[in-house]
Structure formats: C-alpha cells, structure tokens
Design a protein that fits this description.
Elements (H helix, E strand, L loop, with lengths): L8 H19 L4 H11 L9 H23 L8 H31 L2 H32 L14
Helix pairs in contact: 1-3, 3-4, 4-5
Bound molecules: protoporphyrin IX containing FE (HEM) (2 copies).
C-alpha cells in the first residue's frame, strides 16, 4: 500500500474514540468474575442486563472492524525515525490491531459461553493490551519531545484529502 501524507479525520476520530473506550472498559472491569458467575447461576440471556463493561467492550470491537476497513481503504503515513524504529512502529501497530480484536472476542466467548479458562486468557490479554498501548503512547510522546517530528501532530491534524 502506498504511504499517505497523514491520517483522515475519520481515522483520527476512530483512534481517540477507541483509545478512550479501551481504557473505560478496563476501568469498568472490576468484579466481572462475580458478575459472570451471577449471570451463569441465574441462567440469564447474554445481553439481558449486561454490565457496562460488556457494552464498552462490544463497542471497541464494532469500531475496530470499521477502523480496519477504513485503514485498508485510506492507508497510513510511513512511521518516522531510523529503520529499526520504523520496524518497531509497524509491528507495534499490527499488535495493537490484533489486540483490538482478540481482547473483545475473548471477552465475548467468556461472557457468552461461560468458558472460565477463556476468562483468564481474556484478563491476561486485556492487561497486556493496556501495557502495549502505554508503551505506544510513550513512544509517541518521545517522538515529539526528543525527535520533534510530525508523529504526534498527525494524530490530531487530518491530512488535506
Ligand atoms: C477492549 C475491551 C476490553 C477490555 C480492555 C477488557 C478488560 C478486562 C479485564 C482487565 C478483566 C479482568 C477483571 C478482573 O477480574 O479484575 C476483564 C474481565 C472480563 N471481561 Fe473484559 N475487557 C474487554 C472486553 C470485554 C467484552 C467485549 C466482554 C464480553 C462481551 C468482556 C467480558 C468479560 C468477562 C466475562 C470478564 C470476567 C472474566 C473472568 O474472570 O472469568 N470483556 N475484562
Ligand atoms: C488503547 C489505546 C490505543 C490504541 C489501540 C492505539 C492504536 C494505534 C494504532 C493501531 C495506530 C496506527 C495507525 C493506524 O493504522 O490506525 C496508532 C497511531 C498513533 N497513536 Fe495510538 N493507540 C492508542 C493510544 C494512544 C495514545 C494514548 C496516544 C498518545 C499519547 C497515541 C498516539 C498515537 C500517534 C501519535 C499515532 C501516529 C503514529 C504514526 O503516525 O506513526 N495512541 N495508534
């Protein structure tokens, strides 16, 4: 795919909305093990009275699908920096995309099918997601603080077309 000069308005909106929802889902995850047990004990339908955590997580998955389609159609700019830094950015972004799908999907399997081992995996992947996102945010901040390049500004200012 040919690199572009920046991200579109829609890509920027999706980036920040998803980032906010991921953090919100993580913050709203306390006691989810007990909530799951209560749902299974009461034999309730998966979406009957589902907690905020579930709705936030499903929203992440739906927006991630839209985001991937938009990304494939609109492209992205080449990461800045030396070749190893660019390679790390490429793989870091791919990992973030993978986690945007894997974390909500593993949560849905846990919630819908009540597979407890999947719950442990979901928790591990979700905590990993937050750590990777934190590393990604620090890398972006370092780019603008030390290299003074366009990395940070292009996730705020849309490209011309
Ligand atoms: C980006 C989205 C998500 C994040 C960041 C996230 C994060 C977490 C975290 C950190 C936990 C562990 C909570 C704890 O016990 O301390 C958890 C548990 C859980 N989450 Fe999610 N989650 C997401 C999406 C979802 C979705 C979409 C569903 C279901 C539709 C879901 C269902 C559950 C369930 C059932 C548990 C309890 C697992 C167990 O202890 O067996 N999550 N989630
Ligand atoms: C869960 C939270 C986050 C996720 C899942 C995420 C995901 C991504 C992904 C996948 C990209 C590559 C662009 C694309 O192809 O769509 C990206 C770019 C970017 N992100 Fe994030 N991000 C998160 C949080 C943050 C935070 C907190 C910051 C800043 C403090 C940030 C700053 C940036 C910047 C500046 C870029 C542009 C990088 C470039 O063009 O080389 N992100 N993000």
């Amino acid at each position: 795919m040919t690199p572009t000069t920046g991200y579109t308005r829609l890509q920027i909106a999706l980036h920040w909305t998803i980032a906010t929802l991921v953090v919100a889902a993580w913050l709203a995850s306390e006691d989810m093990d007990d909530v799951l047990e209560a749902r299974l004990d009461a034999d309730l339908a998966p979406l009957a009275g589902a907690p905020l955590h579930v709705w936030l997580g499903i929203s992440v998955l739906l927006l991630a699908v839209i985001r991937l389609v938009v990304r494939l159609r609109s492209g992205a700019p080449e990461p800045t920096g030396s070749p190893p830094v660019q390679l790390a950015a490429h793989w870091g972004h791919r990992l973030l995309y993978l986690l945007m799908f894997a974390v909500p999907l593993s949560g849905m399997l846990t919630w819908g099918a009540g597979i407890e081992d999947m719950g442990d995996l979901h928790e591990l992947a979700a905590n990993g997601f937050l750590l990777v996102a934190l590393g990604h945010a620090l890398a972006a901040i370092l780019h603008s603080a030390m290299a003074g390049d366009s990395t940070m500004s292009r996730m705020f200012t849309p490209r011309d077309r």
